Amino acid sequence: MKSPTKPQKQTQKLVKHKITGDNLFKIFATIIAASALIILIITGYTLLKGSIPAIQNFGLNFFFGQQWNPVEGREIYGILPYILGTLVTSGIALLIGVPLSLGIAIFLVEMAPRSLRVPVSYIVELLAAVPSVIYGLWGIFVLRGWMVTYVETPLSKYLGWIPIFSGTPQGLDIFAAGVILAIMIIPTIASLSKEVLTAVPNSIREGAYSIGATKWEVIKRWVLSYGKSGIFAAVILGLGRAVGETMAVTMLIGNATGPSAMPHSLFQSGQTMASLIANGFMEATTGSLKLSTYLGVGLTLLIMSLIINVGAHLIMTRVFKVKGGAIE
């Protein structure tokens, strides 16, 4: 039997080296991908372990109760007002932010001249990098006065007979917090939606124009329909930021506690789960029931975020029927 020649030995050596390199890269990529799941599991375990005393002490009242009494020896904690506050402010943010974001994306992709499209796109993307505390300061010194004078007072005057518009406008309330959240999620949703609309093939637009469709019909029936799954994903990312936002909301929502934080009106003070943690976590001592309560709030917020993301994925796969990146 002939021994391998020198070129054959070199080829075998290169193949062996390539296989080894591919295996190492595969292992490294798998570890990196698994790290996200590991971090999520560790975070969830830490919150669950720390919140067990509060959940055992109060049972279901922890999630459905409204009382918040931190006095030692008479402690009662119920987080329902803060769960509802989180949902209401996030809902307001979506109602205001999504139409504006889509309008910005459609204008930049379909209507704006290139000389205007590029600088406006940069500005929108830069807004996403502004720290939330800056939005909060701007909200206190600028947005609050504008909201009270031009929005909340007229709504209270003419629609005050509707429960959600009842109360005295003050500018530090659920409505103001929802508006600042809307402003904060607009850059995220607008930027991602712009990229989705840009990726729509020009052949679709040309085909629609060739059969006599107007620009509005092309955008409505073809462009938005083609990119609806990507736009929906952008909205969910914006919702994720709104649910977990802390500083700007803390500075504008009024930070009420107990039954007074139940969101009966948009013009009353309230709190979200994130603002509740930001306001009181540092005051809780190690091993105390109060600390366990804040960890329970964090666990609830984590579960809510997971439900939103999993629900969004199910909607995208079943309603939009996304398979392999395409829409049926």
Q: Number of DSSP helices?
A: 12
Count the strands?
A: 4
CATH homology group of one domain: MetI-like
Succession of helices and strands: HHEEHHHHHHHHHHEE
Mean pLDDT: 86
- Please name the CATH topology of one domain: MetI-like fold
Compute the CA-based radius of gyration. Answer: 26 Å
Main CATH class of one domain:
Mainly Alpha
**Estimated structural class:** mainly alpha
Range of helix content = over 70%
**Gross morphology:** globular
CATH architecture identity of one domain: Orthogonal Bundle
N/C terminus separation: 59 Å
Low-confidence spans = 322-328
Give a brief outline of the structure.
This protein is mostly helical. The chain has helices spanning 6-58, 61-64, 80-111, 114-127, 132-159, 174-198, 202-210, 215-226, 228-244, 247-252, 273-280, 289-318, and strands at residues 68-69, 76-77, 322-323, 326-327.
